[in-house]
Design brief:
Blueprint lengths: L5 E5 L4 E6 L3 E2 L24 E4 L8 E2 L11 E9 L13 H18 L7 E9 L2 E9 L4 H14 L11 E5 L4 E5 L3 E2 L4 E7 L5 E7 L6 E2 L6 E8 L2 E8 L8 E10 L3 E11 L1 E2 L3 E4 L3 E4 L3 H5 L3 E6 L7 E7 L6 E6 L2 E6 L13 E10 L5 E11 L4 E5 L4 E3 L4 E7 L6 E8 L2 E4 L6 E4 L4 E6 L8 E9 L2 E12 L8 E3 L2 E5 L4 E8 L7 E6 L2 E4 L3 E3 L2 E8 L8 E10 L5 E3 L3 E6 L1
Helix pairs in contact: 1-2
Length: about 575
Amino acid sequence: SVCPTLVCLPSGENKSCCSCESGHAWPSTVCHDLISCSSASPAPDQSCDYIKEMPFYGPYCEPQTGDSCGMGEPIRMNMSVRLDTDFHDDLRNSSSELYKKYKADLEKAFNASYRCLPGFVSATVTGFRPGSILVNYKVEAEAASFNQIQHSNSLVPQFLDAVYQLGPPSFTTEITDQTNFTVSPADIFEGDTVRLRCEINRAAENVTWYHSNGVTSDQIISTSSRHSLEIAVSTGKSSSTLTIINITKEDSGSYTCTFTNSSQYLKLIYKSVESIAVSPLRIISYSNDNKLSCNSPDMQANSPVLFCCIDRHLPSLTGDWKVNGAINITGKINKRFNCTEYKLNITESLCLPEKSGTVTTYTCELQTGHGARSSQNIRVTYFRVAQVRISSSVNTSVSEGYGFNLTCKSDVSNYDSISWEIQSGDRIQTVECAACIRTNKTTATSVLTVNPATRDWNGTFICTFSLESLNSSANVTINVISLPLKQNILLDPIEASIKCRMPLALNCCISANTREDYTVKFVVQEKEFRVEEKKQGNFLCYPYNYTETKCMKKEELTAYCKFINSIGQEVNSESIRLRLIP
């Protein structure tokens, strides 16, 4: 004995078989180095002895705690071994006597062989397979080292009847819950670069990666243009990273990494499987195509926000926007949950009149930060609200029978149509007169000519330039003032003889429907005489008794009446022919 808690007995040259006293245990730091001492395992009620080099300087046994060797959480080790004898179908049936006998004999041998593994719980046969006979069994114990498992395997023939013909030892151990398998990123999209990393707390000789897409069996992954493998092995640790560049949907499926150590008697495999799903980076919602008035004060104050969104929240998601169009209005990028936003900075200086109605394409591109990206085009049609001006050849009023021109001009040369309307009270009527309207597309000018004016042309003239759904208008009000038309002035007489110094009744009449008070004068040989209005039936008449005092000779005189309206415009009647008799 070398210490009060440790009992050691000599066992060959410079070696001893040591065990801990009751209530004590080996520290966890030496757990993986413990190799059982005797060629045959002790009885179930005896403690296990382990080989120690002499002289022995520790570490020594310590009072048993939850952290001591053998007190850890047991793991399951799936194992198999081959028996060199023919397979019987009864071994497929767990109720058969042969199955029960094989199971009982093998479990007895396995439990005896593995009981000195730290933290050993049990060894259980799980089934048989052809070839010759492959025995599947599981061992539950603390995580064991390669040498510990190999040593326990070497003990099996001592506890198994020779009838089972355990051939040249062909043990395989597979451990599935001791590998740290990570996948980055967690959400994987087509085009991403994906890293799968496996790590174990053991030194391994070989690392192999497999892929299965659910249709084909596991395929070994080799280095290629899209696959790279990194392996790092150090004392007590092994890791491997599989990098897949520009991943595709076909790369979905299960990935298996295996770390392998082999000897003549044992093949130890650390195995872990993870499944990945590769999805398209799909933009599921985005701004509709827009039509915007880029010189509208309201639009400039409340610029719209374009957006593109995917179907899930990704912390690494970023968005980029590209602008392509004659009107180069840019914006500010903002990330919002699973969307990228682009708040337009609309300014009138970028809204050129000659570019009104053109389309600017905004391309949003969403990126995962790992290589995958997806884009969507959003079309924005920019319209400039036209500044339309209308001018008149007359001030605001024109008399019936006179003509006038209205000129309408827009600062936006790109338009679909120009229309003219007249509004009188609540009534709006479209001007449909091809001969009256002349339009110059190049200068964005339209001229409406009215000649002669009648009361039908009285009202507010509206000129409208239209581009798609955007209308820009200007208006001017023209008052058509009543003035009799020359042909509507009735004369009495049309011609007559007039005696010297004898009065002659002259009369001119118009319809009593007029709404204007006229100034009316009779004009005889350039002499004007103001006359008064008299109602005669359905007519308004203006009589005058004319006396000629200059009677030197026979001659023909000319007389007519002149109507003057409120704006000073006038019309003369036809002439009355007077033959002077001296």
